[in-house]
Design a protein that fits this description.
mainly alpha, 3 strands, Arc Repressor Mutant, subunit A, 7 helices, three-stranded antiparallel sheet
């Protein structure tokens, strides 16, 4: 009996160590968020600034989108991860990071609905949860970053410049259209 209790205790210790190792690896990955390249940051900010003008929405929703984008531009230079949550949770986090009042969960929801599918910045993984890809769109290697550039008129890449996997082909350069 004592040996089986001892084995259970050892398995629990091993399980705890494995969990601690997994958490340590996750924190190491999170802490690897490097400083953003100013040129990439400027391009992403320009793309974000142009989102409200190219999304079809009512004037009230367009105002909310503009306010949301303004706040996101203010916090996008800070090395943070992508934001995940319900509209209420996202509203609270954005307000905290921007140092401004909350927009209101209902207003933010209207803006997210209008942006969903029209920009690579917003994703809706489930009915009540949303993702704002703030970190991903600033990573020049991410497919979402290339999509953001592609969907913005001033930064459109030629279709041939983006491989099907979302990576640039080595032999093609990017050109800007004005």
């Amino acid at each position: 009996m004592a040996k089986s209790n001892e084995k259970r205790g050892q398995r629990a210790d091993d399980s705890e160590r494995a969990l601690e190792q997994q958490l340590a690896e996750e924190y190491a990955r999170i802490n690897q968020i490097e400083e953003l390249d100013p040129k990439i940051l400027a391009a992403v900010k320009t793309c974000l600034e142009r989102i409200p003008g190219r999304v079809a929405a009512t004037p009230g929703t367009r105002r909310v989108i503009g306010e949301l984008i303004r706040r996101l531009i203010g916090i996008i230079g800070v090395p943070i991860a992508d934001l995940h949550g319900t509209p209420r949770e996202l509203d609270q986090v954005i307000a905290e990071l921007s140092g401004e009042q909350e927009l209101g969960a209902r207003e933010l929801y209207k803006g997210l609905i209008a942006l969903n599918g029209k920009t690579s910045l917003v994703q809706r993984p489930s009915r009540g949860r949303w993702t704002l890809l703030l970190r991903t769109v600033t990573d020049r290697r991410a497919a979402e970053h290339l999509r953001l550039l592609q969907e913005t008129p001033a930064y459109r890449l030629p279709v041939a410049a983006v491989a099907p996997s979302g990576k640039r082909r080595a032999n093609s350069g990017s050109s800007s259209e004005q």
